[in-house]
Amino acid sequence: MGRSPCCEKAHTNKGAWTKEEDDRLIAHIKAHGEGCWRSLPKAAGLLRCGKSCRLRWINYLRPDLKRGNFTEEEDELIIKLHSLLGNKWSLIAGRLPGRTDNEIKNYWNTHIRRKLLSRGVDPMTHRPVNEKASSNVTISFGAGEAEEEKSGSEGEEMTPRFPDLNLDLCMSLPSYQEQQRRPAAEQMKREGRRTCFGCNLGLPMGIECKCDGLLGLKCGVLDYRGLEMK
Question: Cross-referenced SUPFAM superfamilies, in alphabetical order (predicted)?
């Protein structure tokens, strides 16, 4: 169930308030205080909605309301408070005696926003408008690149930015294998014995040795089967 309406809309006046209605509302509040706004219209003899009575009193009939235009001091105070509180108009109005939140909000939208924009200040962030453009990141050439471009435009040879990389790869057998097999091969050579191809290169010991066979040559023909690797 929703909240019941504060009054019967069929029996309430709408539109501008008359001088007689203002006097009745003022006299009742002076005599009895604000009280409950839902029951106030009937007690004051007004054919008005409770919300309408509250807004009429707060925004127009209160004795402490300040009339007239906003002063320069009030403008600067509103700008300072807005930078701290944002669009919390009721809190801002609480720091400006005699001004209502609705009045301050309307004055902000109609006057102060234009004043800040004319100063080059963003009304939402309270920062310079040009700060957004200056915050963009710009990419420029370094000093070395600028010199290369200059030398290239004058017809001189441009120094390469990165040195050439030498990608030539060298592969060799581990030295410990040579230490294991080459001494034995050298000793066989001193004794006049023939050594196989694997022993001369120092290949791993798991490869079948064909010493005295001279690389597996038979009748001057190279026999690849004699070099079969396991």
Answer: Homeodomain-like
Neighbours of 192 (CB within 10 A): 6
Where are the alpha helices (H) located in the chain, listed in sequence order? 19-32, 40-44, 50-56, 72-85, 89-93, 101-107, 113-118, 130-134, 143-153, 175-190, 197-201
Distance CA(211)–CA(189), nearest Å, equals: 11
Do residues 102 and 59 lie in contact, with contact meaning Cβ atoms separated by under 8 Å? yes
Neighbours of 80 (CB within 10 A): 13
Q: Are 50 and 38 in contact (CB under 8 A)?
A: yes
Query: Which H/E stretch holds residue 8?
Result: none
Q: Which helix (H) or strand (E) holds 126?
A: none
Residues in the chain: 230
Which tens digit of pLDDT belongs to each residue from 123-138? 999 999 887 555 554 5
0.70 surpassed by pTM: no
Cα 228 to chain center, whole Å?
67
For the record, the structure tokens of 229 come out as: 């690797």
